[in-house]
Amino acid sequence: MTAIAQTPRRAVARPSRDGRPGSRRINWVATIILLFGAVYCLVPVLWILIASTKSNGELFSTPPLVPSFDGSFFSNISGILSYDHGIWLRWAGNTVIYAVGGGVLSTFIAAAAGYALGKYRFRGSAFVFRTIVAAVLLPSVLLAVPQYLLLAPVGLTNTYWSVLLPQLVNPFAIYLCKIYAEASVADEIMEAARLDGASEWKIFHSIGLRLMAPALITVFLIQFIGVWNNFLLPFVMLSDNELYPLTLGMYGMIMPTGGQPNQFSLVIGGVFLSIVPLAAIFLSLQRFWKVDLLSGGVKL
After folding, report:
1. Is the overall model pTM greater than 0.85, yes or no?
2. 264 belongs to a structural domain
3. Which of 11, 51, 70, 300 has the greatest count of CB atoms below 10 A from its CB?
């Protein structure tokens, strides 16, 4: 018998619609829309970077997108850090407490609630889920004053808790975790864990959270950025300057009643510094931010 050597089959490039093999048509409409969106998002950030290099006088006398190289950048940074005995650093610390603490606690609550709604059927579960979906449509701006009226009688206003508690439950985060838990946590894995004697809490903690990790990172990023940039809730809840986050503190610096014109450059320097943590945490977590609702614990 003679062995017949078979050569591997080569992939043949299919001709495109214009008849040329290997070429691809570019959707110029979609490309232009995406480029416009990218410019729309990046221009404000670019303006902050350039404006932070200018003095207060240069902000209004030079072209917006032309940086200054006279050393005003370092003056702005040192000025905002030393402003009012370093109150900016206190505001930054408060913002970290609100954003990290609120983000972690809110993510865990959303994970537990979404996992329960997605993997268990109990009396009233459908009603609870419909209520959460309806709450997603309710603007959070409308809840600031009612939340203040609820916390004021128990003495929690003007405290850290007045900013943390209202942000612990996010309907959209619960909805996202519910959908992801249904798609990623397979019933077969849960049944196998039960046969091995694992409790429901053990299954959620050891299996559910790990399989839901991409969604949880997404929820944490959404919560972190939302709390970091939140202005209205601290504005309603807080009256002590020592408890202000960055958004409310720097807003007070440029108010006509409490600020001075020469503080604009300092505030822009503070805004530049406040962007750095957001960029760092986003870049460090983006490699985990791969939400794929078609992936799960069981591959077919």
Report:
1. no
2. yes
3. 51
